[in-house]
Write a structure and sequence with these properties.
Layout (H helix, E strand, L loop, with lengths): L3 E2 L6 E2 L5 E3 L2 E3 L1 H10 L5 H12 L8 H13 L1 E3 H8 L3 H13 L3 E6 L2 E6 L1
Antiparallel strand pairs: 1-2, 3-4, 5-7, 6-7
Helix pairs in contact: 3-5, 4-5
Bound molecules: zinc ion (ZN).
The site of zinc ion (ZN) has 8 residues, from helix 1.
């Protein structure tokens, strides 16, 4: 079996570990990055980064982002799907709220027991 490497960071992937994203085999981290950033120049992400920067007082969180941050802060480590359920969001919606928090280096994702967990950065 040929060795698989992440198309982005070149990390070696165990069989079955890679995630396919737009035809490329990526490791979990790069896959999450790709989802968070969505094609490097997602207008929404850029817009968010810009509007956050333009806000008086700097990087204010939306109420939903604040809730997500508080949830992770209280529980230390929350499976992504559970966080979505607790906030009444779909997985996609949660990822959208999570992306700016990741960019602000407030939260990060890690993989544990084959599940994606959100933790403090
Ligand atoms: Zn990678």
């Amino acid at each position: 079996m040929p060795e698989t490497t992440c198309a982005k960071c070149r990390a070696a992937l165990d069989p079955g570990e890679g995630r396919e994203y737009q035809g490329q085999e990526l490791c979990e981290d790069c896959y999450l990055d790709s989802l968070s950033i969505t094609k490097t120049c997602d207008p929404w992400a850029v817009h968010t980064a810009k509007s956050l920067k333009d806000l008086p007082g700097g990087q204010n969180l939306t109420p939903l982002q604040q809730k997500l941050f508080d949830l992770v802060k209280d529980q230390g480590e929350v499976p992504l799907l559970e966080a979505a359920a607790q906030l009444g969001l779909t997985e996609d919606e949660l990822r959208r709220e999570f992306a700016p928090l990741r960019h602000m280096e407030k939260l990060r994702a890690c993989k544990k027991d084959d599940l994606i967990h959100l933790t403090l950065f």
